[in-house]
Automatic annotation (TrEMBL):
The keyword Metal-binding applies. Decarboxylates branched-chain and aromatic alpha-keto acids to aldehydes. Residues 203-311 form the Thiamine pyrophosphate enzyme central domain. Its cofactor is a metal cation; thiamine diphosphate. It holds the Pfam family TPP_enzyme_N. Residues 395-536 form the Thiamine pyrophosphate enzyme TPP-binding domain. Belongs to the TPP enzyme family. This is Alpha-keto-acid decarboxylase. SUPFAM superfamilies: DHS-like NAD/FAD-binding domain, Thiamin diphosphate-binding fold (THDP-binding). Residues 6-109 form the Thiamine pyrophosphate enzyme N-terminal TPP-binding domain. Keywords: Decarboxylase, Lyase, Magnesium, Metal-binding, Pyruvate, Thiamine pyrophosphate. InterPro entries: DHS-like_NAD/FAD-binding_dom, PDC/IPDC-like, THDP-binding, Thiamin_PyroP_enz_cen_dom, Thiamin_PyroP_enz_TPP-bd_dom, TPP_enzyme_TPP-bd, TPP_PYR_PDC_IPDC-like. It comes from the Bacteria. It comes from Actinoplanes palleronii.
Length: 552
């Protein structure tokens, strides 16, 4: 046994090995010694967050760019506040490590055997662990220093293999105990496919790609989560077939690609993309997850769409399990199918909206007609679960990996704190620009505090229409085209959002016209040392054009 090497150092060294550069943390006495004595002394920078939910969302945003994110909280009162963020990371396959500083064995036994309680205890040693067993791919308890290396390695290997969150309970009395140093390097588990099923699926899909007169590729989010960007791009150009993405996979590949036709998201898609999907006689969906928010009123035609995702191939009545997306793409690449003879109509390019007069009141659609001039290859765009999904869906994002939204789980309030993690994970000095609804921003506005403290400079647009617009839209969209009132539960208490800049020490603007918006953008782009909050005031019944299909 190496008596100079400890459990606390082991966890830090393994996290650093996996590429973690920042740890989002909330001070808690069960975790503070590990953070102070081990993380602070390492190459991992501690980002002191304001609450556990924001820390979880920040770690999620960080992981989407860096490939791993982590947060450290204290037992129960802290960990259970992070449940929603970890649930979202689980649903969307984001590799986040939750480290929960946990009471010592002595405290635990005293509580269980005598009833003498320590703060944060609920019902003994299983409470937090059992909660996170349902939301992670590994939930472990480090309560023995000799087993700690094996337990930690198992959890972290699951995280990078499954691309989903893991939960590690680090007991306060384990941190300084000696253990063996790391052996070897952590690597993801190998990908497994059934050879016969893989061969059969490749043959079947190749035949359809060769015979279809109007094939279409639908690129999904698993391409990003599994790191298949290069292979997928190579396949697309080998096939020479147009492709679309989904909201969850928007800008996974470069939207300037000549084969890119647009984002296909049901009725919210552009008219040209809807026509493309309707006319296609075979659609190959690579890594697409079917959700109500990426079908949006569109009846999926399973007889002409082959779905390759979640390690299965599904096409009509054909079902083939244990076929990995990566192996199937490899098989298609080896098949050398190419379609030089396709005669597809040209998809309309993104038009430039007419410039509105400076004194004209901003509309929801008008905002998204105005903003593209500020989005280039040096921009990362993010959208919250709100009516912003519709506007941002059709916003051209030139840079691959330049768009982030939690559109499958869709927790409102995600994107503001996620911007903290995105800024810290961004190695290319791209400007982070995110769009939030006012209702969502009220849930996590303290993100401005962390961003100001660490000199981060995202531009956060808060679209202030005074209501939970998307909730009203989902429940009864006809209100937006009538004189009827919104549901009372959808009406927000008004905030002066731009004034939050004075509270947190950053910069803020309140705009209601395009001239004011232009001035605010000039100021925000010049502000490199703190977040900029731009409150965009619009009428409460103004909605993006591609959301009107449900209104009428």
């Amino acid at each position: 046994m190496n008596t100079d090497y400890t459990v606390g150092r082991y966890l830090v060294d393994r996290l650093r090995e996996l590429g973690l550069g920042h740890l989002f943390s909330i001070a808690g006495d069960y975790s503070i010694e590990w953070v102070n004595r081990y993380v602070q002394q390492s190459q991992i920078e501690v980002i002191e967050e304001v609450n556990e939910l924001n820390a979880g969302f920040a770690a999620d945003g960080y992981a989407r760019i860096r490939g791993i994110g982590a947060l450290c909280v204290t037992y129960s009162a802290g960990a259970l506040s992070a449940v929603n963020a970890i649930a979202g990371a689980f649903v969307e396959k984001v590799p986040v490590v939750l480290i929960n500083g946990t009471p010592s064995i002595k405290r635990t036994l005293a509580f269980e055997q005598t009833g003498f309680s320590s703060h944060h205890f609920i019902s003994g040693r299983e409470t937090d662990l059992q909660t996170f067993e349902h939301l992670t791919v590994a939930a472990v308890r480090v309560d023995n220093p000799d087993l700690a290396p094996m337990i930690i390695d198992y959890a972290l290997t699951q995280c990078i293999s499954e691309k989903r969150p893991v939960y590690i309970e680090l007991l306060e009395d384990m941190v300084d105990l000696s253990c063996q140093p790391p052996q070897g390097t952590l690597r993801p588990a190998r990908i497994m496919s059934d050879p016969a099923n893989l061969e059969q699926s490749v043959e079947q899909i190749n035949r359809k790609l060769e015979s279809a007169s109007k094939p279409l590729i639908w690129v999904g989010v698993e391409v990003d989560r599994l790191g298949l960007h290069e292979k997928t791009s190579t396949l697309l150009h080998q096939l020479n077939i147009p492709y679309v993405s989904e909201l969850l996979s928007k800008a996974v590949l470069d939207e300037d690609d000549t084969l890119f036709a647009g984002v296909f998201d049901g009725q919210a898609s552009s008219a040209a993309v809807k026509d493309l999907a309707e006319d296609a006689d075979f659609i190959l969906a690579l890594g697409v997850w079917l959700t109500d928010l990426n079908t949006l009123g569109w009846e999926t035609d399973y007889t002409k769409t082959a779905f390759v995702s979640l390690d299965t191939v599904k096409y009509g009545t054909y079902f083939s399990p244990q076929v990995s997306l990566e192996h199937l793409i490899d098989g298609l690449l080896a098949g050398k199918v190419s379609r030089d003879n396709l005669k597809w109509p040209q998809v309309q390019a993104h038009g430039v909206a007419p410039v509105a007069a400076s004194d004209t009141a901003i509309t929801y659609q008008g905002f998204y007609d105005f903003i593209p001039q500020y989005v280039d290859e040096y921009t990362i765009v993010g959208s919250d679960a709100s009516l912003n999904y519709f506007g941002s869906l059709l916003l051209k994002v030139p840079s691959a990996g330049g768009f982030i939204a939690q559109s499958s789980y869709s927790a409102i309030g995600y994107i503001g704190p996620a911007a903290t993690g995105i800024c810290l994970a961004n190695n290319d000095d791209k400007r982070v620009m995110v769009f939030s609804g006012d209702g969502g921003f009220q849930m996590s506005a303290q993100c401005l505090s962390t961003q100001t403290r660490f000199g981060l400079n995202p531009i956060i647009f808060v679209i202030n229409n005074g209501v939970y617009g998307v909730e009203q839209w989902l429940a009864d969209a006809s209100v937006f085209a009538s004189n009827r009132s919104f549901y009372k539960s959808c009406i927000l208490h008004p905030w002066n959002y731009s004034k939050l800049a004075e509270v947190f020490g950053c910069q803020g603007w309140k705009v209601g016209t395009y001239g004011e918006l232009r001035t605010a953008m000039t100021g925000a782009l010049a502000n490199s040392s703190s977040p900029s909050i731009i409150e965009v005031v619009i009428a409460n019944k103004s909605i993006p054009t591609n959301a009107e299909w449900k209104r009428d």
